Amino acid sequence: MPTIRAPAKKKTTTLTVAVKCRPLNRKERDCGRDIVRVKNNKEVEVLDPDLSKDYLDRIQNRTKEKKYCFDHAFAPHSTNLETYRKCISTVISGVVQGLNATVFAYGSTGSGKTYTMVGTQHDPGLMVLSLNTIFDLIKRDKSSDEFEVTCSYLEVYNEVIYDLLEKSSGSLELREDPEQGIIVAGLRCIKVHSADKILELLNLGNSRRKTESTEVNATSSRSHAVLEITVRRKQRNKYKNQVMRGKLALVDLAGSERASETNSGGQKLRDGANINRSLLALANCINALGKQQKKGLAYVPYRNSKLTRILKDGLSGNSQTVMVATISPADSQYHHTVNTLKYADRAKEIKTHIQKNIGTIDTHVSDYQRMIDSLQIEVCQLKKELAEKESQLSVKPTEKAADDELSWLNVLSQEISENVQERINLQKALFELEETNLQNRTELQHLDDAIAKQPASEKDGTVSEALRVRRQDILDNIRDNDEAGVNYQKEIEANEKHRCQLQGMIEEAISNNGNKTYLRILSQYRLLGMANTELQFEMAMRDQIIHNQREAQRNLWNLIMGLGLDEKQILDLAAKQGITIEDWTMTRHPGLSNRGQSPNLASGGHAPFSYGLSINQWHSRSSCIYQNYQHVASKSFSQDRWDLSPMFCREEHHSSYYLLAHDNSPPCVRFRNSDNWVGGGHPIPWFGTPDKHPRDLRKSYPEMITPASSRNESHLLAPALGADFGQGKKDLNRQNLYKGPHGAISSSSQDMFKGVGEIVNHGRTANGFSRFIGSEQGFSTRNSRHMVSNHPSLPCIPSYTSQSPKT
Ligand SMILES: Nc1ncnc2c1ncn2[C@@H]1O[C@H](COP(=O)(O)OP(=O)(O)OP(=O)(O)O)[C@@H](O)[C@H]1O
Hints:
Largest sheet: 10 strands, mixed
CATH class of the domain at 11-364: Alpha Beta
Distance between the termini: 59 Å
Number of strands: 28
Bound molecules: adenosine-5'-triphosphate
CATH architecture of the domain at 11-364: 3-Layer(aba) Sandwich
């Protein structure tokens, strides 16, 4: 099979980010004011909407004023043509030379995305201007090359892809093509010879696009629209067999909105939820990609929505990409404007790698082959649909009633699945926010230390000034993230409410319907499927945490061992880093023949778990506290053996706690609340509710409830471990744990400990991810999520306390 040849060079480039501010509309002029200032064609300043703030507030940084700088910024009076000339035209000329380009408008509802992309007759939008340029360039081309231009236009509505160039398009599927990346199977590609023809198609497609009138925008787009133009250039000169293929994707996103603002309900509300979901997925991708550039690898959740899968190339692959962030200058839109600018600011970090798509004539033929294949698939699909429709017409009334019942159930289960997916997205977002703030707070602490250490003579110097500016930035970020976190939590609450309604509907259907058993099994099956999705996400998150901690431990051990330090030196060094080593109780393992080897690596062979070390400052993503717990007296590195004694490992991550326990009882996972061990015989992971109480999975899915148990301790059998420790050691161990050198556990709380594996809470409030991970009904928020596990893969390490991030 012919393939597109690897190009000679790949050029790395960053996203071009432009901000376009629309004028105030009449309503905004009458009852609000303009709070956006565009300066020097690059800077955007958003004033505090609260006019009551005075000079003192301003000099003390108590206003919500924000300043950003972008590649381009356009004031309200500027036209689409100006935007096009300054940031799009060069990208478009590349398309005729075999390069890919993506242009997308991002902003809240009513901020001017469609105006920017489609425009009006007097002020044509970027789609129209780009198409005219492409045909102009082809017309003016002096070479004898042959050009062919094709166009497709799709929309993603409620996570379903429709062809806007088809009169009554069915839903289309996404496929991964090894050469072309993500493609939409069965999407019509129409050959066009002039810009006018494409504009005709564009208008036709736009008339089919789903729009609604909302409180904020009379013609609000309810779907994301992607216009794709492909230019194939068959070369006639020395590279006779070569075909260059440039692709231009022009994207008009649906607007993000809040249900309360748009005053919508029913279908509109559902659309809004789906739009927000895919935009949230896009925002998460922008976040992750931004982080990737700053800190190396980060998981980019493209697969969370169809939109992000379609935009994948534009965000990180082979594409020159321009993001036009559209904002409203109205004071009532302050929150949306700042939110859009924040994501636009992050998008500046995103890098793409552009290269010419050069293929052979054969490749060109293979493209046609692919088109034929996809048309054949479409024909098969249509035939199948026709056959189904025919058979539906001939079904008996009783069968039809049963079918109706089932299709109702399908709709319901679809809603449940969307509800779960939305919650996962929100919780992920919350998790990211919390993580960012954790890092922010650590940096804040370091900055405070650095500022305090500045000599008096330097207090007014440039270094001090830079530190203070950075400190203010971090404070702003923390405050913004906290605000965003509160909003996410509200959305999670709404999501939870919706979930309860859905649950009620299922229960009602079960009690009303004749075929109860079947429906019950079916609904149980679906609910378990949903629960499974949540569990998988939780597992993935935990794997990530464990991976990060291992990394940190490994690095640290390698460093410490490489230095060949003795215990005292290590303790001194740790103290300098602000780390207190509570209890040095490691003895050497027979398997560790020399002290140069990282104890963390000693987990192989017969060792049921590994030794490790974690220190907050060294940790790349999470804050951890580990506690090694042994009945053996403290031993130093110089001793001969690493003793495999019973051990506890405590980890704090986003207010989630794990503790590893090894004793002679069967390995188990235990849960406890602030006072007692709780739960039945077969505990399962728990998911936090949006409010203060974690959600009981069995409550959410009552079909999963196992007979209640009066026992206040729950055990979940884990895979057998090699460790087998005497029960007798347990009490002593517990005692040691309670009486750590720093008195980590208060004497009153000692009474709470009724089994192995209790955990000390260092007083961090539980939120974000901790809501999501392991806990049980009735936990107090303060002591929040306690989970005890003896997972064999988690490392056990010496005892430390690390400084909690500043709150
Ligand atoms: N630069 C501009 N000049 C004049 N009017 C504008 C401008 N930008 C937007 N508008 C007007 O603002 C209103 C909302 O714009 P538009 O429909 O483009 O918003 P949107 O971001 O696409 O909204 P949604 O996401 O809800 O589809 C429209 O009436 C549009 O004509």
